[in-house]
Amino acid sequence: MGFDLLNFHRELAKQGIIFCFRGPVSQQVIEGIGQTLRQKMELEDAGMTTVKKVFTIFVEQMQNVVNYSAEKVGEDELSDGELRVGVLVVGREDNRFYVLCGNSVLKEQTERIKNRLDVLREMNEEQLKAFYRERRKMGASLDSKGAGLGFIDMARKAGRPMEYGFAPLDNQHEFFSIKVVI
Amino acid sequence: MERLIIEATKSTPYIFFDPEANLLRIKGESYPENAARFYTPVFLWLEEYLSLQNPNQITVDLELPYLNSSSSKALMNLFEMLEDAVGSGYQVLVNWRYDDEDELSLECGEELQGDAPSLTFDFIPHVK
């Protein structure tokens, strides 16, 4: 066996990782994992607000993968076209939940993502709230499949500024990762 | 005009719009892959309803424990249509139903109220 599954399993547990997913993300995957994630947190007696914050961030991250990941596979009968690939980790460190998500993006998109996230990292709770409401009142931007509100919603549910990074994959792509601590 | 009824799924709410009762009810979690597409028939129905009726009182009964960001945008668009209706003589009452332990749901309703000032909101907590 080339891949040491037992070691992988132990390592995840040691790191406090509750959930780990890598592969094509569909709406059905989001619904299924989302439901299980909430059940698991409720069993651990996490408060209603915490469970909802984690779920919110999970949904926005996974829907970002569905809409924006540059890594695609095959055709999915149930959605418009191909499936997009991403990696997601939900874990707990220092008694706080976190959601970590990564996917491939086109190099030309990185500047825009950086700019958007840097703006949010500088904002406090009140500013994020005002920005969210202002953007919601405006028409959806044309290049946006969602409402362009996802990152702002995530920042509002986060307990501290969201961390992100890019790493080169090949000539055209970079690996984008974002960590949100609740 | 026909009623609009859409059954709930895991990620889309139950829709029940009744033109005779002047009732718009949306109940359930909303996080579809494409909120704009899911809510299009809802907007179209409401547009037609508002064009056919004489101004009257509309009750909007909402129980939305979770809205993703694009559904929240869609709801704002719906409220903008209703605000226009108020401008042409309708009265709109929004019942915002939420779990009394769910502070995020209450906050979500209060923010929508703040951004749709011509609608009357009634916040209705339910206790488990």
Task: Provide structural commentary.
The complex is a heterodimer of chains A (182) and B (128). In chain A, helix 2 runs antiparallel to helix 3 and helix 3 runs antiparallel to helix 6. Chain A contains six helices and six strands. Chain A starts with a helix and ends with a strand. In chain A, strands 1, 2, 3, 4, 5 and 6 form a six-stranded antiparallel β-sheet that branches. With 182 residues, chain A is α+β, with helices and mostly antiparallel strands. Chain B is built from three helices and six strands. Chain B has a single domain, classed as 2-Layer Sandwich (Transcription Regulator spoIIAA). The model of chain B has no long low-confidence stretch (mean pLDDT 95). A six-stranded mixed β-sheet of chain B has the order 1-2-3-4-5-6, covered by helices on one side. Chain B is of the alpha/beta class. In chain B, helix 1 runs parallel beside helix 2. Chain B is 39% helix and 28% strand. The chains are: A alpha+beta (182), B alpha/beta (128). At the A-B interface, helix 2, helix 3, helix 5 and helix 6 of A face helix 2 and helix 3 of B.
